[in-house]
């Protein structure tokens, strides 16, 4: 194992960890916490750079395609930069995977838009680096909406519960069939790893445990 931070050992086979989840699941918070604990390079999705995103939340039907294409190209550029020489960090923590783009595209785009999107995607996705471990924070729609309301981002104020419900179902469908990389599915509805140190340490133990199966499930309530 490679030592990272005070008393923390990262399995040698894990260099790049990506965290996923629906809007409000806590993926960026967990990515920040892990990068700090593991002294890893932090790579965050640049959603605030997308000029179409606030318009999409107000009028999804008219702004879905522009929003999606901007995200596709932005995520592609960022992924290409991901493994440039970094003399100060041996590991990378990210708050998204490139494949998430498909979830939103299939949920929001019309047929002809989807055909154009897929033609662009097929030309670039083969050059995307794969994580050594993906962590999927699975949560209930009610918990996601509560987190979204609590953080009170201006662009998310018109986000409907129906949209989050559909997105949550799409994420579950995607990750319950995901086989591209090792996957840890975390039932995160009833834990608070941001404000509860015990919850975070228990989750960290699961993430750092070596010799993982291709797909693992972590339900914290089983331990309580």
Topology:
Layout: E1 2-3, E2 9-10, E3 16-20, H1 27-38, E4 41-43, H2 53-58, H3 60-81, E5 92-94, H4 100-108, H5 111-124, E6 133-138, H6 141-151, H7 161-175, E7 183-187, H8 197-208, E8 215-218
Parallel strand pairs: 3-5, 3-6, 4-5, 6-7, 7-8
Antiparallel strand pairs: 1-2
- Low-confidence spans: none
CATH class: Alpha Beta
The percent of residues in helical segments reads 40-55%
| SSE run | EEEHEHHEHHEHHEHE
Q: Helical stretch count?
A: 8
Going by CATH, what is the homologous superfamily? P-loop containing nucleotide triphosphate hydrolases
Structural class: alpha/beta
Q: Strand share of the residues? A: 5-15%
Question: Describe it for me?
Answer:
This protein is of the alpha/beta class and 224 residues long. It has one domain: Rossmann fold. Helix content is 45%, strand content 13%. The chain has helices at 27-38, 53-58, 60-81, 100-108, 111-124, 141-151, 161-175, 197-208; strands at 2-3, 9-10, 16-20, 41-43, 92-94, 133-138, 183-187, 215-218. The chain is globular. The protein starts with a strand and ends in a 6-residue tail after the last strand.
Structure characteristics:
alpha/beta, 45% helix, Rossmann fold, 224 residues, six-stranded parallel β-sheet, 13% strand
Task: Write a short abstract of this structure.
By secondary structure, the protein is α/β, with parallel strands linked by helices.
